[in-house]
Amino acid sequence: DLPSDNIISIPFSKDTVGDAFFSREYLLTQKIPFKSIIVITSDWHLKRSRIIFNAIYNNDPKLMFCKINSKKPKYVNEESSLKAFYKTFEYTNFKDFEDVKKTIFSKHPLYNQL
User: Fold this and answer.
1) SS3 40
2) Which strand (E) or helix (H) includes residue 99?
3) What are the mean pLDDT values of the chain's consecutive 10-residue runs (114 residues total)?
C-alpha cells in the first residue's frame, strides 16, 4: 500500500551492490529526507542484501528489510557472491561515501567500465 511516489527505481543498477549504491547516491544528491528505507528482497537473498545495504548505507538505522517468500534459482550461490563483495570492498572505508564510489567504479566488475 505504498504510494508510487515513495518507490525509487534504480535503472543503472545491475546487482544488489548497485541497488544499494545508486539508491544511496540518489538520496544524497537529491537531498531527499526520509524516515525509513524499506529494502524488499527474496527470502533466500535477505542475508546478503542486509549485509550489502548495511555496509553501503554505513549501518543507517533507517534501513528496514522485508522478505518475500520465493523459490531460490538453482544458479545462485549467495556465499560466493558474498565472498566476492568482501574481496571487492576489502579496503573500503564505508564511512566515506566517496571511497565507496571509488571502489565501485574501479574494482566492481559490473561498474568498473563506466
Assistant:
1) strand
2) helix 97-107
3) 80 94 92 87 94 95 93 84 96 97 96 85
